[in-house]
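User: Please predict the structure of the protein below. I'd like the answer in structure-token form so I can feed it into my own downstream comparison script.

Assistant: Understood. Taking the following sequence of 134 residues as input:
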Amino acid sequence: MEASLILINLTLGGFLGLLGQGVRVIAGLKKLQDASQEPLKENTEFDLRRLCITFLIGFIAGGLGIVGQMEADGSVKMDKERMLTLIGIGYAGVDFIEAFLMKYISKEPIATKQPFTKFDPEKLKSETRESDIS
């Protein structure tokens, strides 16, 4: 079992999971566009943090998905079927993980508490507790 081969396969699985999440994002944006009566404008609120988190979850889901397909020596016979499976894991895995997190950990959707607008160092100082610094 070669560590570099395992790392390459985990990265490949992660990127295929990320691709699956990208398909999910495109489908979600299309659904949002269809539900809207007017075209999306530049100032439409878009939560970049949530997008980044879901891409990260898709990467992790794809990486975990390829682990189940590895041989004992860490190799993976990559064919079209396995690639589509990993893309599907990225697509569906994010739905599953988000639903789990929303049900058991948070009552609010992931990363939707406050959309990021600008960095304010003074606000950060006021929110930082003394115990966080030491």
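That's the full token string. The chain has one domain: 3-133.
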